[in-house]
Every structure is written in structure tokens, then in C-alpha cells.
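Worked example 3. Consider a protein that binds molybdenum atom.
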Amino acid sequence: MATSVRRTSCNLCEAICGVLVTVEDGRVTDIRGDESDPLSRGHICPKAVALRDLQDDPDRLTTPVRRTPDGWQEIGWDGAYDLVVGKLTEVQREHGRNSVGVYLGNPNVHSLGALTHMPTMVKQLRTRNRFSATSIDQLPHMLASYLLYGHQLMVAVPDIDRTSYLLMLGANPLASNGSMMTAPGFGRRLKELQKRGGRVVLIDPRRTETAAVADEHHFVRPGTDAAFLLALIHQVIADGHACPAPYVDGLPAVEAAVEDWTPERAAGITGIDAAVIRQIAHDFATADRAACYGRVGVSTQQFGAVCQWAIQVLNIITGNLDRPGGTMFPRPAVNALLGLGRGHVGVWKSRVRGLPEFGGELPVSTMAEEILTPGADRIRAMVTIAGNPVLSTPNGRKLDEALDTLDFMVAIDPYINETTRHADVILPPAPPLERDHYDVIFHQLAVRNTSRWNDAVLPKPPQARHDWEIFRDLGIRLLRGTPMSRRKAIAAARLRMSPRRIVDLGLRIGPYRLSLRKLRKSPGGIDLGPLQPALPQALHRKNKRIDLAQRMILDDLPRLESLATGNDGELLLIGRRHLRNNNSWMHNSARLVKGKPRHQLLMNPDDLAKRDLTDGQLVNVSSAAGTVAVEVAASNDMMPGVVSLPHGFGHNRPGAQLTIANQVAGPSANDITDADLTDTVAGTAAVNGVPVTVTAG
Ligand SMILES: Nc1nc2c(c(=O)[nH]1)N[C@H]1C(S)=C(S)[C@@H](COP(=O)(O)OP(=O)(O)OC[C@H]3O[C@@H](n4cnc5c(=O)[nH]c(N)nc54)[C@H](O)[C@@H]3O)O[C@H]1N2
Ligand SMILES: Nc1nc2c(c(=O)[nH]1)N[C@H]1C(S)=C(S)[C@@H](COP(=O)(O)OP(=O)(O)OC[C@H]3O[C@@H](n4cnc5c(=O)[nH]c(N)nc54)[C@H](O)[C@@H]3O)O[C@H]1N2
Ligand code: SF4
Ligand SMILES: [Mo]
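Given these inputs, the predicted complex is written out as C-alpha cells:
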């Protein structure tokens, strides 16, 4: 028997753990952590093993399929490409270029070939109706980065390996493995932090897995963190602890804006004691090295933009930005900022609701109505790429309905699932173990500078195509229809270049002058050291200064007045992640779904008692968007007045061909999240803090 151990990194989440894959006679028999990886140091989570399940999953498509009256039919690649490009150009010829909509899902950022080739292909569609998971995720981080540092991807990450005080809001890295902060083995890093004498303080409406290991945890009323953060800034300034770097402007305007945001006022809104707010402000400002970090819970809520701006302001005015142990800018071997524009916001608005674009994309909360509302520029054909928006975006049922009305839909996706079942054609890319891997995005967000290239672990079968080959072949066909120009010649050349070649170029022009040849000599990755100070030179602003007084944000502060208490009997819904789930699409792995059910609505026992409900019973959870039925589980870990439901469930929709996932119980949280509930600053979906009522089912 031919046995070998090969190296790669797991691409399922942002932690990019190095893994060792044992292959016997062409089949994976073992996956374990790679101790030699300088970033992950051997860490993996249960999902790594599911890479093997993806590889072996009989439901995974390996050739294109086309919908026919008799069901799905396999077709050849060339025929599929011609069909797709023919239909899309036909729709655009008849209804204009914006009549084709695009949704880009999460796994795109985890695939080298998608990052190198997908944007060029999508650009050839020349549509303004582009959507992605960004607007139900990290948009507020990118907006704050764009406004303050001049580039949407210039994200400051907490230097957790050197900090002595970590203040976290709305993040549960012990379940999520960290996000907008690549820090594999987060639990171990926290223990090391505490061993150094450091403190971890967490603000979350649920006492989470991360709360269990934090030094302090405080409940916060969902959606009100902005008030807490403004009060922290207020208190830091009042205590005379504001000491921003000389290249920072706008402190007086911030001081004026937070003047009325006393800890007492914030306490009434957030449910966090004024004394606690004062203490945190004091501890943060006087800690040796402090970092404030906020994730999904403070991004996908009605004040996401204010929150992410305020987090930056807190780090900046306490002198913690760009210093070891504070928040710092990674310097990866391939500069991801070069591949993406600096960003822009509000250059155009969505047709139906007038929501602003960000970085060329419209908020996903408006996607269904852009399909359903008649008029010029209505979306009549959709392209979904690595996305499952029926389960992942608000008002999933409405989107289900909308997708059914399309003239044409193509999905680039390995599964016939809740979303792609609506497609006319599905183009499946080869799975992770058959692809080369270099992490272009997550080295840019990592808490340590490292670099790692891995050749594909397994050969791709001849009938399969890599994602980049699919984008290349669609892109070239889209370019063919019209006369050649210089712009198009560049696009064509780019599409024809392999990801390998692009990474090699990126490494060569990068700050460490590496090359693919050099990297391939160390398949466990190479260490490029801890994060280094880089400001003000690294700012993507001409004057090399940071202006805290951002109009877009300051003008939004009056809206905070609306943070009053809710209606009688109303509860606020928040989300939840579990170590063994991965957004909407990994429930087809028997290994991951086994064990106790984890789809229940969590609710504080007092809230159950008030409604005469009992633990385990079926309840109806209703919002302005709809109702779902689900079992309720009593939990003392929930803040009173708050209930929690995980997203990514709601399988077994007719036509979805997911043998294992279709047996997994639990409704889709996004059948009751509300597309009308957004952060008005940039249109981010507010899926946390949704008003709901819970009644006996
Ligand atoms: N209520 C609520 N909703 C949420 C969230 C929440 O916290 N609460 N979180 C939001 C967040 S942060 C995100 S990122 C989104 C994610 O939502 P989506 O962007 O929809 O991404 P996934 O749910 O990961 O779905 C991935 C899809 O890509 C396919 N896929 C998997 N691997 C590949 C691949 O290599 N190539 C291609 N082409 N396709 C692949 C899968 O089959 C699946 O259809 O969900 C958001 N939705
Ligand atoms: N196992 C697993 N790992 C994942 C994913 C997955 O689905 N499963 N998804 C990946 C993706 S796409 C992402 S974006 C990341 C997300 O990474 P995280 O943001 O760390 O993930 P969550 O577990 O959603 O953590 C959000 C926390 O915010 C809290 N919260 C909700 N509302 C509020 C609020 O108003 N204020 C405050 N302060 N807290 C609030 C929730 O209780 C929850 O604990 O995880 C990634 N990693
Ligand atoms: S934490 Fe788990 S899912 Fe994330 S990269 Fe590591 S092994 Fe993969
Ligand atoms: Mo995400």
C-alpha cells in the first residue's frame, strides 16, 4: 500500500491551521495538526477532519449539471460554459447590464483560485447589482478601515500574543476560532495571555464558551454596544487618559460628540453598571498594552459602523494602535491590499431602497427586493458563487421566492443545496484537498507574520475543474462577445495566468522578496516574526494622518437616541456559532453533525416562566419577517430578555440533495431575521438584536 503524509492548511475558517494529511492509495485516512506551522503550532479543531468528508461526499458534484424537466442532467464543461454565457448575455442584451445579479459567498475568501480569478470574471459582467457576504459580516470593519486608515482592507488586529488587556465585544473565538483576526489556537493564546498576568474582558449577551475562560464577562443588551463604547471614550477623555499619536486629528470633535455619553447614561441603555464602565475605561487606559476587538455581534447589528469606528477610536486615543500588544497592522508576504481598491462608499445607491454601495457592492438585505420589484434594472438572472444566501441572509423565504422568478440562474458550487436548487446550471469546482493553497487574505489579518504555500494534496480527476479554471473559461467567453480593447486584453491576460504564477509574482514584489521556489522548500510554512509598528508611513492617505472626526459616523450618533427599551413582552434575538458547524454548508458531514442537537432557541429560565413555557417544548418565534417553530432550551447563560438561535440550519427544502444535512433538525434563523433591519450607515444586515416574540407552538 502506498502511504504518504502531505501538508496543507485547512481552509474552512479564518484560522488557516496547518494540517498533515495521510493518504493511502489515493484516499485520505488521517488528518492532524502540523506542529511545524509557525502560526497554528499544531492546533486544529474538529472541522479539519471534515476536509476528508468533503473529499469523499457522494453528494458533492464533480461535473456540471443542468436542470431539465426530468431532473438534473450531467453535461460537459464546454457546453455548460457556452450555455451560461449565452443566457447571461442574452438577458443583459434585452434588459441591460444590471439585470444580472451576483452573490459572492464566504468560501471565496478561503480559496486561492477564487481570489485570483473570480473578481476579473465578475467584472466582465459589468453589473452594479453585486452582493456578497460582506454586508452581513465585516462591512463595518472595512468601512472603519477605509475611513480612518485609507484602505478597506487595512485592518488593525489585536496583537494578542503580547497584549496585557484584551477587551472583546460580540466575539466568540472559542467557537469561531477567531475572525478578522487569524489566531489559530485562540484558547491557548488566551491562556498564555493570562499566564503573563494579562486580563480578558468580554461583553456579550450570552455567557459563551469564550466567557467561560475570560477573566470578566458582562451581559449587554443586544444592539447597544455603541452606547457602551462611547461611554468608554467619554470616560477615558474625562480621566485625562487620551494621548493619541501626533499623526491623529479630530480628538476635539470626538470629545464633543461623546460629551453627553456618561457611563450612567450608557448603563441605562446597555444594562452594564456605570461603575463597571468606569472601571473598564480605567483599566484599559492604564494597562501596559491594551487591545479592544469586536466581531460579528457588534458588526451585524443596527450600530455596527459606529461600533467598529468607536473601537478604533478607543485603541487610537489610548495610544494602543500600532504598538506591540495593542492593535497592529500585519505585513504579509503577499500584500492583499494591492489586489483590492482602497474602497468607496455611497457612489451609487440601490434601486429599490436607496441603500449605499460599499466597495462596489450593494447590501445583501436588498437582494430579494431587487429581484422581485418590477422596473428598469430589475435583476432577472443571478450568478451565485460559493454562497447559500437562502440560509445565510435575512428573509430567506422571500429570497427563495425571488430566485424562483428568475429567467436564469447559475451557481458555482459543489452542492445542490437550499440555494442552488433554484439554479438552471451548477458548475462545481474541485474540493480543497485537490487545490494548491496560499492564503492571500488571512495572512493579511494574522496576529503573526508567516507565509505558507502548499501544493494540492490529491490530484484532481480529469473531469473536474478548479475554481480558477471555471472563472477563466467563463471570463474569456464573456470577453469574446465585444471588440477587444486594452482593458480587455489585460483582463484576458490576467485570466490566463495561473494562481501559482500570481502568488509567485506577489511574493517577489512583496516586502520579504520571497518566491514560490523558496516557500516550497518549507511546506510547513516560514515565520516572518511578530507584527511591527508601521504608522504613519503605512497609511493609505496622502497626508499620512488619521482623522477621527468622520462625518458619516458622527452624523449617525443622534440615531443612538432610539436605543430605548423594547416593547412589553418583546425579546431580542441574537445568533450563535458552534465549533462543529460552519455557516450553512457543513452539515452534510456525519462526523460533524453527530452528538447532541444544537439548533435550539436558548432562553433564560425566567423568560420561559413568564410565558408559562417549559424547557424542551416547541415554540413559535415571530418577528416582523416571519415565524419559525423550534424547541426551546432553558439556559442560565442567556441574558434575560434575549434569545439565541444559530444560523445555517433550515435544511430539507424541497429539491436540495444533501443526504445527511436534510436530516438535521432546526429552522433557519434567517427566516425570521428582517431584511428591513439594517445599519443605515452602510446597509449592513442587523441580524443581531432582532425584536421577536416567543409563544407556545
Ligand atoms: N442570522 C445570521 N446570519 C448570518 C450570520 C450570522 O451570524 N447570523 N453570519 C453571516 C456570515 S458572517 C457569513 S460569512 C455568511 C455566510 O454565508 P454564505 O456566504 O452563504 O456562505 P456559506 O453559508 O458558507 O455557504 C457556502 C456555499 O458555498 C459552497 N461552497 C463550499 N465550498 C466551496 C468552494 O470551494 N467553492 C465554491 N464555489 N463553493 C463552495 C457551499 O456548498 C455553500 O453553498 O452568513 C451570514 N449569515
Ligand atoms: N465553528 C464555526 N466557526 C466559524 C464559523 C462558523 O459558522 N462555525 N463562521 C466563520 C465566520 S463566516 C465568521 S464571520 C466568524 C465569526 O466569528 P465570531 O464573531 O467570533 O462568531 P460568533 O460566534 O458569531 O460570535 C458573535 C458573538 O456576538 C454575540 N452577540 C450577539 N449580539 C450581540 C450584541 O449586540 N452585542 C455584543 N457585544 N455581542 C453580541 C453572540 O452572543 C456571539 O457570542 O466565525 C467563523 N468561524
Ligand atoms: S480552526 Fe478548525 S476549521 Fe479553522 S482552520 Fe483550524 S482546523 Fe480548520
Ligand atoms: Mo463571516
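Take a moment to read the result before moving on. Residues 65-136+336-527 form a domain with the Rossmann fold fold (CATH 3.40.50.740). The mean pLDDT is 97.
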